[in-house]
Prior knowledge:
- The chain is an alpha/beta fold.
- Helices cover 47% and strands 17% of the residues.
- It has 9 helices and 5 strands.
- A 5-stranded mixed sheet has the order 3-2-1-4-5, sandwiched between helices.
- Strand 2 (20-28) and strand 3 (33-40) form a beta hairpin.
- Helix 5 packs parallel to helix 7 (148-168) and helix 6 crosses helix 7 (148-168).
- The relative contact order is 0.16.
Amino acid sequence: MNYTVLDIETTWLSKYKHKITEIAAIKFDGNNILWTFQTLVNPQRNIPTEITKLTGITNEMVASAPIFSSIIPNFLNFVQDDIIVAHNANFDYGFISQNIYENTGIWIQNQYLCTRKLANRLLPHLPKKNLWTICDFFWFQNEQAHRAMSDTKVTVQIFKEMLYLLNKKWITQQIDILQFQNKKICDCL
């Protein structure tokens, strides 16, 4: 089974009130990148100035982009039954799941891994577990932070390093990685 590593950009933080403006995903077999998926999304509402300053995504950029409901079939075909991987996965998975449900009445059922949660267990010495701190730790360059594909690419690199660290602990099967992620921190060290 493959992993789909993804990242989204949104109009703000609430999955119930705000909308997706960009989505990027990389299908990853644990060693190699297999395929990519990327699109801007027309949120059908104004993007706040603060968000444009953070992401660089403007109302003009998304004006002719597809609306989320029109990308759902292609996105679900891309993801299939992969385990979804994201940094702060509760946010990304929650937003995508909520938006799919609002448009189809169906909740996605994919399991997911969070590189932030894995960092809590595998890199407890890091003072922060945000994407930038972990990139610095592994000497990875994020070319365009707060843009979905750039953040997805560095998350793939980070996840690959985490798979290596997990392998050193004899944790190699996806089910075991999911269990390790969800254990209490004191049980993992």
